[in-house]
Amino acid sequence: MGKLAVYKYISLLFLIATIILAIFTFVGLFGGDANPVKSTFSAMLVYVLPLLIIANVVFLLFWIIRRRWHWALIPLITILCCIPYIGTLYQFGTESKEANAKGGLKIATYNVAMFQRETTGFIAQDILSQMKKQKVDILCLQEYSDKSGDQINSENYKEYFPYIAVGRQDMIIFSRYPITKTEKRTFEQTNNSTMWADIDVNGTELRVFNVHLETTGINGALHRAGKAIAAGKKVTENQILNAVYDNYEIGMIARAGQANVVANEMRQSDKPLIVCGDFNDVPYSYVYNTMLGDLVDGFKECGHSGFMYTFRGGRKPVRIDYIFHDKSLRGITYYKYDLSYSDHFPIFMKLEI
Predict the structure, then answer these.
(1) What is the b/e burial string over 308-327, where b = at least 16 CB atoms within 10 angstroms of the residue's CB?
(2) Are 287 and 214 in contact (CB under 8 A)?
(3) Rg of the chain on CA atoms, in Å
(4) What is residue 190's three-state secondary structure?
(5) Is the pLDDT of residue 217 over 90?
(6) What φ, ψ does residue 164 adopt, rounded to 5°?
């Protein structure tokens, strides 16, 4: 085989790979429209979209270097179609000092991981101190614990947040504005739940949802594998990978069902909505799209410049905590804050009512 034939053969392989990559990327982009119960494969592709986009960039550079401009159009068009998705992870704008100076309603959501179950009450108190510094008006907490040793956290928070709505044991909403009505809903066969509170903000009544959806199940699978290994049992890498995949698939399907339940509750509201919480799912997933509906993703609207990730407990930083709001409200600023008390970051948003 001559050099020219080898060259053409390699180019053909790269072209086939470019086309297949583009197809997988588009399937991933629209994978969030597919219920995981019916289409696990396309739903799963959403989780590797960042890797697929990076691969498209590599192929774009390859075709540019080879000066094959017509083939370069394939990854270029694919990347351009991914811009709305990229906007859910990264913002290019600059932080506005005027935004922080403006008045408005400040919302925060934080999975506090049971305050690490410490008994002095220090973590709960320091988190409250940070909320005061950030001038938070409404605070939604997940994995909340009301007791830290002999301290009752809700009693300590009352000085700054006089109004409280209690959901399931680990769910709570603190507010500086009167709470007129509240409701909670538990999900079947799980410890996760959701709740909402109607809050009167200077005459404007808002319905604030606090949501904690099913976990991924990865940590549980790894923990069980670790215990089996410690007990002297033989556990292969394939067994671990299969267990992780099975648990993730089960969690994904459970979250999809829970998201449908919450979305139905949201549609019944006759008040402007603010939806906060730990969704345990990534942007553009079925859960993200279902929860977002016709609401506005605060980060896309007014997020601080840079990469947004909210889970700090794993090797791969991902965005799984959100604040969405009704289109009748306008976002002023949206950001996370670096607190090390949990495997999540707290998220803050200021809204103009």
Answers:
(1) bbbbeeeeeebbbbbbbbbe
(2) no
(3) 23
(4) coil
(5) no
(6) -135, 135
Q: What is the DSSP letter of 197?
A: E
Asked if residue 350 lies in contact with residue 105, where contact means CB atoms within 8 angstroms, the answer is yes
Quote the pLDDT of residue 63: 94
> Which residue is listed with tokens 């959806």?
213
The residue length of the chain stands at 353
* CA–CA separation, 280 and 212 (whole Å): 8
- Helix, strand, or coil here: 227? helix
Token pair listed for 36: 């995981």
What DSSP designation does 191 have? S
> What does the alpha-carbon distance between residue 280 and residue 319 come to, in Å, rounded to a whole number?
8
Q: How far is CA 203 from the centre of its chain?
A: 31
**Nearest alpha-carbon partner for 325 in 342, 308, 300:** 300
Tokens representing residue 190 in the block: 């799980």
**What would the pLDDT profile of 283-302 be if each residue is shown by its tens digit?**
999 999 999 999 999 999 99
C-alpha torsion angle, residues 297, 81, 290, 208 (rounded to 10): 0
104 dihedral zone (left: phi>0; alpha: psi -120 to 50; beta)? left
How far is Cα 61 from Cα 55, in angstroms, rounded to an integer? 10
Are the C-beta atoms of 139 and 164 separated by less than 8 Å? Answer: no
Cα–Cα nearest to 112, from 262, 270, 352, 337 = 337
CA angle 278/35/195 to nearest 5° reads: 30
Q: Which residues, in sequence order, are bridge partners of residue 300? A: none
Question: What digits encode the pLDDT tens for the residues 83-102?
Answer: 999 999 999 866 555 566 67
| Interacting residues of 76 by C-beta distance below 8 A, sequence separation 6+ | 60
The per-residue DSSP string of 64-90 comes to HHTT-HHHHHHHHHHHHHTHHHHTTTE
Does residue 230 surpass a pLDDT of 70? no
Global pTM value:
0.88
